[in-house]
Amino acid sequence: METHALEYAFVRSTEAAAIAAGRLVGLGDKNAVDGAAVEAMRTALRDAALAGVVVIGEGEKDEAPMLYHGEEIGSGDGPSLDVAVDPIDGTTLASRGGPGAISVIAAAPRGALFRTRVPYMEKLVTGPAGRGVVSIDLPLEENLRALARAKGREVSDLTVALLDRPRNEPLMRQVRAAGARVRVFGDGDVANGVYAILEERANVDVLAGIGGSPEGVIVACAARALGGEMQGRLWPRDEADEVIANEEGHDIRKTLTLNDLCASEDALFAASGVTDGEFLDGVRYRRGSAFTQSIVISTYTRSVRTIDAKHELRPRDLRLDAIEPKSAATP
Question: How far apart are the first and last CA of the chain?
Fold first, then answer.
């Protein structure tokens, strides 16, 4: 399978998930949104020329519909891949009609992606300027000073994205004490992580704090593809999570480097907007058509592509014919 065809298959799956979920935006049913996205993504990937295995997926931590751990995707012909999925990152946002929900998938060669059923992970994510500069083992204030020096900026110029949860409040205080700005978000771990990596396109310099493990592995693929930095550490909520980590052979005290999270130099990341956000525009429906905006980040073609597409919708058919695509590639 040619690499551009692999990228196309993946972005088609996120487009299908976004279009299916978009019909349910704002109706208040979180599981219905997730379920529609899961089935659409599964259908879109069924005949793709790849031998993929889902190694980490959204849903386990909240008992939502999901592409399950160990599920095989694709026709079985083509490259053997580890696949990490989040059919809707920001499910609650989408169900409430809030901004910034996306559909996302990431992959790397078989055996490359970190696997765990521990739901949460502490994370530190930056762009290329942070490689070899920051460390999750150091206080956040120290990392901000080091990153500011590496970027030739003042700490006060930096913005740190933090998931708005009580467990991250100590980090919020550290950021403010250091003189940097805090950007809190209610959901959307993946989008804010990729923001931190895309130095030229975003106003976030660092993603820090405790969020989902599946989202962490997905962001690691983007970090690998874009030359960014990501480190993590499992964050067990209780003894049950510690038992899971021990059964998996993971040391909860270990710092997870990018090589732990995505061990290959090759990685692919694709996402489509479900609701409007700073990262991507949401789905729009007009006279039997759907309009989507997506991003594909790939080491295989060494590119970042933003794709605006019009899809002709066919009733009772999840297979969507994309027409009139317009894309802008950045090497």
Answer: 22
Q: Are strands 120-126 and 206-212 parallel, antiparallel or unpaired?
A: antiparallel
Tell me how far apart the alpha carbons of residues 61 and 316 are, in angstroms, rounded to a whole number. 31
3-state class (DSSP) for residue 136: coil
**Total-model pTM:** 0.89
For residue 287, report the phi and psi dihedrals to the nearest 5 degrees.
45, 55
8 A C-beta contact, residue 40 and residue 46: no
Phi, psi of 124 (to 5 degrees): -140, 115
pLDDT tens for each residue of 11-35? 999 999 999 999 999 999 999 999 9
> How far apart are alpha carbons 197 and 147 in whole angstroms?
13
pLDDT, residue 316, reads: 53
Beta bridge pairs of residue 287: none
Contact 307, 294 (CB under 8 A): yes
What lies within 8 Å, CB to CB, of 140 at 6+ separation is 160, 171, 174, 175, 178, 208
Beta bridge partners of 311: 290, 322
